[in-house]
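Checklist before submission:
- one chain only
- standard amino acids only
- sequence pasted in full

Submission:
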Amino acid sequence: MAVEVTDANYDEIVGNANVPVVLDFWAAWCGPCKMIGPLIEEMHSEYEGKAIIGKVDVDNNREIAQKFGIRNIPTVAFIKNGEIVDKSVGAVPKTQLTEKLDAIL
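Returned file contents:
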C-alpha cells in the first residue's frame, strides 16, 4: 500500500528521501481521485526500492498541499531533492505517470 504522507510525517518521509518521491494529492469525495488510486498502488509495488510512492489526503493535510500550491485534485507530484520537478493533474493513464517517474530515476 502506498505510504500515507501527512503534515506530521512529511519531513521524515519526503524531506529525508534519497530516491524520487511521487505524491498523489487526493480527497475521499473526489471521483477522478478514485480512478488514479489503484494506479498509484500498482506503482508502489512496481517501484519499491527505486522511489517512494505516497498519498496525501488534502482535506486532512492542508500544509503540504499549500506548500506545493496544489489547487486541483487529483494532482500527482514528482519530487526530487525536495522540489517538484514534474506533475500531472487530473485522471491520466498509468503510462503517463510511469513515464514521468522513469524520467527522474
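Reviewer check: The radius of gyration is 12 Å.
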